[in-house]
Amino acid sequence: MEEIEALLSPYPYDRRRATSGWHSPWNITSAVRLGRCSRPRTVPVSEAGAGGTITGPAGNQVDASCNQTITPTCLRQPYNADGYGTSATNGNQIGITGYLGQYVNNHDLQQFFETYAPEAYGSNYTIISINNGQNNQSIAAAGEEADLDAQYAFGLTYPTPGTFYTTAGSPPFDPDAHTPNNTNEPYTYVSALTMPACFISGEGRQWLEYMLSAENLPQTISTSYGDDEQTVPESYADRVCTGLAALGARGVFLTFASGDYGVGDGDSNPETQLCFSNDGSNTTMFVPMFPASCPYVTTVGGTMYIPETAASFSSGGLSNYFSRPSYQDNAVSDFCRNLPQARTRACITREDGRAYPDVSAQSDWFIIAYKGQFGYVGGTSAASPTFASIISMVNDARINMGKKGLGFLNPWLYSVGYAALNDITMGHNPGCGTEGFNASVGWDPVTGLGTPEFREIKGTRVAAPMIQRYEEH
To answer: How far apart are CA 132 and CA 259, in angstroms?
Structure first.
């Protein structure tokens, strides 16, 4: 294990940013399973910075430019966290994870902070290397996903101390039509029988082994990665989910992105869809995501614009591995009972599966600095650090009052906490040759229970005890 304090210095050279004309996003293909390719968007900078306000979900005023470009301010304002200041010294922390060779570029981070979070400019974060994970600082090695996660999680919560966990390695994998190559993440070792001796000695342990043995953990951790559930061997998924439950029991609030392919592959055309079972039968079915489908994490779907509507790529559905926990019964059973489309019902393998997402947040037109340039990205990998940051602020307020972090929140969210969220009732998430599910009143498998309202959550949870109720799966 290696722990490094990364001092984030400004660019050593003068890179002028455009102040007029057009922002031109880069043209790349992301290697991150949840990362959606950046694509051109013709929004003049001068227009994006135009004046005027719109009414946000909390009834407060939001800069009109937030309907064109998402910045940290455009998340704090609609989610009613504007003006709240966190502490650098009360013990609250936030963490993000990195896999698949995704590295946080410090120069990109400082460039982003200087423009969109100036109060954080020049700040640092901690790097923890797991299984020889790296954080290569060459411009060519900058990670789109890692840059996004760091710039928003650390920018939104500054000066809360941040940690980047960079993990190397590759897990067991069962290919399917949508994911033919192994781009899955090594959350844990394969099994006790196959665990190398170096794991026992402490070298080569994967993320969960490191976290469960660590004494000092962030109260909030966001992960923007995930895989087709069926590509993860079920025994391995069960081991990972059990480890995530143990982290929650230690008071860590875990968010995972729900995925960016609607109900499976994002393709509504029955002739070209790729949602087939990988058990040899090639059955057409909705393809859930993992770890989004684990009952012991809070899974975050995606929204866009104000008023908020579901992002069409927001993944959601029902797990084929994990049973629905009792905390979801009231919210989910009615939705499943009233599914109108025969084809939709036919594509659900088990209606008693763990349902996701649990919540949602803004997920498109996020501006980030990447390889020295500004561009737009989108996906639920933007929503996860956003929701995590809001809860980190709530944890900050709790710790200031002598309380512990909230830990696992799902039972509270489904019982009474939904009242502190903004219900999203517009949009759907096509895929697998169908139009997918519709956002609706209450919980739905596109946006979950809704988006966060910081001051409402803070008002109900700051003085409350930490939640420690779990269900068997």
So the answer is: 27
Express each pLDDT in 425-448 by its tens digit: 999 999 999 999 999 999 999 999
CA distance 286 to 346: 9
Strands 298-304 and 359-362 turn out to be: parallel
Q: Could you confirm whether 145 is annotated as catalytic?
A: yes
CA angle 107, 109, 112 (to 5 degrees): 110
Query: Tokens 């090639």 appear where?
Result: 282
- Annotated catalytic residue, options 222, 293, 360, 381: 381
Which amino acid is residue 356, in one-letter code? Y
Does 20 or 288 have the greater pLDDT score? 288
Instruction: Write down the number of H helices and E strands in the chain.
Output: 12, 19
Which residue of the set 149, 176, 229, 444 is catalytic? Answer: 149
- Cα torsion angle, 29, 35, 38, 39, sign: positive
| pTM for the whole structure | 0.89
pLDDT, tens digit, for every residue of 269-308? 999 999 999 999 999 999 999 999 999 999 999 999 999 9
C-alpha closest to that of 69 among 377, 415, 464, 450: 377
User: Catalytic one among 63, 82, 144, 145?
Assistant: 145
